[in-house]
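Bench log, entry 3. Co-assembly request; chain sequences pasted below exactly as received.
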Amino acid sequence: MTQCDTKTRILDSAEQLFAREGFHNTSLRAITSLADVNLASVNYHFGSKDALLQAVIERRLLPLNQIRETQIRGVLAQAKEEGIPPTAADLLRAFIEPTLEFRNSSPGAHDFISLIGRSLSEPDETVRNCFLALVLPIFQLLFKGLCEALPQLSPAILLTRLQFAIGTMSHVMCMGSLSVFNHPELPTPLDQNTLIQQLLKFVHAGLETPE
Amino acid sequence: MTQCDTKTRILDSAEQLFAREGFHNTSLRAITSLADVNLASVNYHFGSKDALLQAVIERRLLPLNQIRETQIRGVLAQAKEEGIPPTAADLLRAFIEPTLEFRNSSPGAHDFISLIGRSLSEPDETVRNCFLALVLPIFQLLFKGLCEALPQLSPAILLTRLQFAIGTMSHVMCMGSLSVFNHPELPTPLDQNTLIQQLLKFVHAGLETPE
DNA sequence: GTCTATAGATTGATAGAC
DNA sequence: GTCTATCAATCTATAGAC
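Structure output for the full assembly:
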């Protein structure tokens, strides 16, 4: 087994268990057992459990942020070219759509998305700060774009509403099943694509409502 | 020290630590040390750590649910009396306002609200199921009312959007500070009251937007 | 790089005196 | 009901052979 294999197997297993059982509820033994590697290899390759979490997050979040940034900059550039402000709907889609579609990009990506969906409300600073630092730049870019798109809203109100939108999106990201409330008396959940479209409609309407 | 004192002290300390450090990251020793009671008293009074969590949640969630149910039934009764359907805005306010105002009702209530705000996305079933079971009835009542208020929306769409609204609210409940993204380049967060009003506007607009 | 073995600390839970 | 003392299991991390 080459070094690369071992590292990847550890990352994959850690991603799955951190997402499904929680960081503090996952032991290194559970990870190495699932990955079928030796216990000591985690500390050899990553140094510590905290550093392993950081590696799990960075592996997928850095590429995802690249995609989101490209999309947002694309919307801004197009608007500039046409001499009009960007629209809030386009900016939100540029941020949200790649994130949720990322779930289907690989088997582990689904676990990863629920892991970072939970990161904002994570009580432990180890997890939360690691995530926040990587997301802040793209969040600021999105906020700046939305200020141009919705100049009638005060920046403080807009920032608050954008955080509402992020909260809504995080909730969807966490839902492994398409519904938290599963009960025979309630309607069947929507399919994945309709869900994303409804999410975009929801946050767009909320963001643009008059003060 | 009477029995009642000890139980209450344990509940208060557990509430604070579960909320701020997370359930699995909080040891019984940390709880009894903060409560200034004996380690063995937790298992004497509650039986286990899991049962303690259940007690922490039930202590405040049962009264809160009573308030929310009364408010929602009040809106439904008033509408029936006037022979018109209830409004989505009134129903949402009846559910959301008591929840967020509950934070100021006692020193520990703030911690409790962030604890249950995180419960929906909690990976561990111990925490999540304990919370879900207590919240499902009030959620169904709210959903039924909203079906009357917004008959133009299909129940499946409405259920999805209501879950978006719950997700948005959960996010606000988790935020101890009024902003997750605190950064010198971003505007200052809004005060508590404006935040609640903005939250109501946001989810109301999102809920009512055309399909 | 991979392994065994283990150190060293911490955990939830309990037995038994008072 | 409260306490001390402790068990048995688990944890992260590391030392050292190969």
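Residues 27-29, 39-40, 42-43, 48-49 of chain A lie near DNA strand D (CB under 10 Å from a C1'). Residues 61-208 of chain A form a domain with the Tetracycline Repressor; domain 2 fold (CATH 1.10.357.10).
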